[in-house]
Amino acid sequence: MTQKFNKTFPKTKITGQMKNENGELFSLLEKDKAQIIITTINRSDERFFATEIFEEHLKVLLPKSHSLTNRKSVKLKELAGETFIMLSELDTEQADHLPALKKTSRVAVPIEDEEVNVKFYAVCRVEMMRQLNSVLKQP
């Protein structure tokens, strides 16, 4: 998102912060300490404009010999007690730094729990809606 903003508004200084609480993000927006936030809450009302920007769907890569590989999806509780290697880049489409993983006999099985299948929204004050939409249209 930062790259898109820099491309659309090259003379504007763009900074970002990570916050763990949606409430804290909305508080920054309400106090004009942030112009746009990325959150898991779709909050559109008379003050705020929200638009979906992406979804995250986690999968687990299991050895073909694993008992859960024939399933269409699994729940987190079914994975309890398993040992995992976590990728720093969760998007396995960009996991080119692990070519051996792609060549092994692994099966990607979606995790169906709601908390690991999340939609993310860009939210701004209604006055900034035009600017946000122009940024999101950038390739």
Q: What structural keywords apply?
A:
139 residues, alpha+beta, 21% helix, 24% strand, elongated
Brief write-up:
This protein has helices at about 1-10, 20-30, 100-105, 130-135, and strands at about 35-40, 50-55, 60-65, 105-110, 115-125. The protein has about 140 residues and is an alpha+beta fold. The mean pLDDT is about 85.
Protein described:
With 139 residues, this protein is α+β, with helices and mostly antiparallel strands. The protein contains 4 helices and 5 strands; from the N terminus they run H-H-E-E-E-H-E-E-H. The longest helix is centred in the N-terminal third of the chain and has 9 residues, at 22-30. The radius of gyration is 19 Å and the shape is elongated. The protein starts with a helix and ends with a helix.
What's the overall average pLDDT, rounded?
83
Which regions are unreliable across 5 or more consecutive residues at pLDDT < 50? none
| Structure summary, number of beta strands | 5
Tell me which oligomeric state these chains represent. Answer: single chain
Strand order of the largest sheet: 1-5-2
